[in-house]
Design a protein that fits this description.
With 204 residues, the protein is of the alpha/beta class. It has seven helices and seven strands, in the order βαβαααβαβββαβα. The longest helix has 20 residues, at 183-202. It binds flavin mononucleotide.
């Protein structure tokens, strides 16, 4: 049995393509694996704070020397790192905002990519082991893939791939919902994503 961590980061609700498809992914996964369990976190609707000076001070203070205030400042980060450690499968919905990830998702990364917790500062290797990551992206346009016209603009996939690899997660599958602002093309992209979900969740 697996435990799933489901994250969404679109600022939108029911109009969000990434939220819709990441939700369908989890539903389809649970149909294929009925005993599995899920923890959800909605970064889009309940954004977490950006890094502060107090957070950085607390993060770089050895755990045994932290003041009660520093322990408090790291509480949410500790909770989210606990969620990453406890899950076997991550399903994340990430829109493209200005060619990259939404700032709420970047704030999440900055809170969880912590030395001694998710990566080892002695070896620069990741500490999250045996995890599978499924990333649902949504983009208004297209042409961001390898060899395509806007590949060089795309900082969304590399950010996700690199940060998770740094934390030890290298089994990564992307489901791209492109052209969400382009009517019929958007419908085709959704249909394609749904086909991909069927194959991925049945074969997992
Ligand atoms: C602030 C903002 C920036 C955006 N930047 C881009 C962009 O750089 N490239 C693109 O293709 N679409 C861009 N879009 C369109 C979104 O990627 C698109 O609407 C996508 O479907 C949003 O994800 P969602 O449907 O899950 O909310 C942007 C939208 C917003 C709100």
């Amino acid at each position: 049995m697996s435990h799933i961590l489901h994250l969404d980061s679109s600022a939108r609700g029911s109009a969000s393509h990434s939220r819709q498809i990441s939700g369908e992914f989890v539903e389809s996964w649970l149909q294929a694996h009925p005993g599995d369990t899920v923890t959800s976190r909605d970064l889009g609707h309940q954004p977490i704070p950006h890094v502060t000076e107090e957070f950085i001070g607390a993060m770089y203070t050895p755990a045994e020397s932290r003041t009660p205030a520093q322990v408090e400042v790291l509480k949410l980060s500790d909770e989210m790192i606990g969620e990453l450690k406890a899950a076997d499968v991550y399903v994340i919905g990430v829109p493209m905002y200005n060619f990259g990830v939404p700032s709420v998702f970047k704030a999440y990364i900055d809170a969880v990519a912590r030395a001694g917790e998710t990566w080892d500062p002695a070896t620069y290797t990741g500490l999250l082991e045996n995890k599978k990551l499924f990333v649902v992206t949504a983009r208004g346009g297209g042409g961001y893939g390898p060899g395509e016209a806007r590949e060089a603009y795309n900082s969304q996939d590399p950010t996700i791939r690199n940060v998770f690899a740094f934390m030890g997660v290298t089994d990564v599958t992307f489901i791209h919902v492109n052209n969400t602002l382009r009517g019929e093309e958007s419908a085709a992209a959704l249909a394609e994503a749904r086909e991909q979900i069927k194959t991925l969740t049945a074969g997992a």
